[in-house]
Design a protein that fits this description.
It is built from 19 helices and 16 strands. It is of the alpha/beta class. The two termini are 76 Å apart.
Length: 456
């Protein structure tokens, strides 16, 4: 044998031994010629059990369950079978090598250990089952907390959870409710929530803004009038809003703006559940649930003599204070994402918020509350050139200090709030726990555990 041929043989042997997968070569008669080190590593079969031996004898001894080599020699084509070698399940492929006359000269066998694949299949099955469990839990959670998303209520803060829970309780009774909070916090939305969850859901729901109706017209609007009650009155008279709300609910927004003289008539409605039209002498019984709201301090108005004390106590049976956005900053990313999604759907956009924009929005004081953030997000979306909305697209200034002030707080509390904020922002944008976990650089199971721990 020439030196070049020797070198080629050495190279072939080195290549075969370098293969991670087991390789075995037999001649055209079925006798073993070559096997690499990986064959012994994977199967435990040594050279003296295969090399120089006919594969029929190896099968008889139980070393292998079947011979791909003999199958290839018989069928004269490449084949793949499942084979048990020394008790190990393997995927085996046999490939024939033909000479110039088209006869098989050698059969090269490649083995692949599929025990790892089986393990992966089992792990995948368990992961799928776990994912299905999480999905069911999430569906149950969403079903249980569906009212949180009712008519634009997007909330995950403990303060809003308390408000919503109290609103749900009030929906089951007929008690008079007074909604307190700054302008734009969503008092009308909470009133709608109470209405929709109660047994008056399919009955009239009349909304009255006491500040928007001229004071000299408010009485006729609320209580109605009879024919000829005043100049310009309809010749058949007209039922007031309380009559129109009969059987349902009336929502008196900005109740603090009601004229003092008219408050006595409203008190009579709340006490006797009856109204008298202007210019009329008969009393009409009504069945109305009253929900009122104000952004003013009614106690101060009572002290000044601008609001009747007896009416205040009648309205204030169950007060529900709706916190401003600056007191529930964890809701801001959800709200911003919600309103941006509505704008995207409305105009066919695909806009989204940058991390810096989220931080900016969460640090802003929002004097106009939810109404302001809704308007600002829409303005930014329709005026920005790029799909990614950045800090420059929002006309607000970050106040001095951290978004998460650390004074008088433990490290654990600060870390938890940062985690909570990052998860809320990511889940609001990416929707699923799988995508969110990938973005945050953690496993899905770790994310779900964190969400449970943080009460999300």
């Amino acid at each position: 044998m020439h030196s070049l041929e020797v070198e080629v043989v050495k190279l072939y042997k080195a290549v075969i031994d370098a293969s991670y997968d087991p390789i075995f070569v037999a001649d055209h008669t079925g006798i073993g010629l070559i096997m690499n080190e990986a064959y012994t590593r994977v199967t435990g079969v040594k050279e003296d059990q295969l090399i120089g031996r006919h594969l029929r004898d190896v099968i008889k001894e139980g070393v292998i369950s079947d011979s791909i080599t003999l199958n290839v020699l018989r069928k004269k084509k490449q084949m793949t079978i499942m084979q048990n070698v020394n008790g190990k399940e393997l995927l085996v492929t046999g490939s024939p090598i033909f000479d110039h006359q088209g006869a098989i000269k050698y059969v090269v066998t490649n083995l692949r250990d599929i025990s790892d694949l089986q393990t992966l299949k089992e792990e995948l099955k368990k992961t799928k089952e776990l994912a299905e469990t999480y999905l069911k839990e999430l569906e149950q959670y969403q079903e249980k907390k569906q009212f949180i998303m009712h008519e634009g209520i997007i909330a995950n803060s403990s303060k809003m959870a308390f408000v919503i829970d109290l609103a749900e309780k009030m929906a089951r009774v007929q008690t008079t409710v007074l909604l307190l909070g700054e302008s734009g916090v969503g008092k009308e939305v909470i009133a709608s929530l109470i209405q929709s969850l109660g047994d008056r859901a399919n009955k009239p729901f009349i909304k009255v803004n006491c500040a928007a109706i001229p004071k000299d017209l408010l009485e006729s609007e609320l209580f109605g009038y009879e024919k000829g009650a005043f100049t310009g009155a309809h010749d058949k008279g007209r039922p007031g809003l309380f009559e129109q709300a009969n059987g349902g609910t009336i929502f008196l927004d900005e109740i603090g703006e009601m004229p003092f003289a008219l408050q006595a008539k409203l008190l009579r409605v709340l006490q006797e559940f009856e109204v008298t039209r202007i210019g009329g002498g008969r009393t009409l019984k009504i069945d109305v649930r009253v929900i009122s709201a104000t952004n003013q301090d009614l106690e101060s108005l009572v002290a000044k003599g601008e609001f009747r004390e007896d009416l205040y106590y009648r309205l204030n049976i169950v007060p529900i204070r709706i916190p401003p956005l600056r007191e529930r900053r964890e809701d801001i990313p959800l709200l911003a994402c919600h309103f941006l999604s509505k704008v995207n759907k409305k105009y066919g956009f695909s806009k989204h918020l940058s991390d810096d924009a989220y931080r900016l929005l969460q640090s802003y004081s929002w004097p106009g509350n939810i109404r302001e953030i809704q308007n600002m997000v829409e303005r930014a979306a329709v005026t920005a050139e790029d799909d990614l909305l950045g800090v420059e697209d929002f006309p607000v200034t970050i106040p001095p200090g951290d978004v998460f002030p650390t004074q008088n707080r433990t490290l654990k509390e600060v870390v938890s709030e940062v985690e909570r904020d990052m998860i809320l922002r990511a889940i609001a944008e990416y929707k699923t726990t799988r995508k969110t976990a990938g973005v945050l650089g953690i496993s899905q199971s770790a994310l779900v555990k964190k969400m449970k721990r943080l009460g999300l």
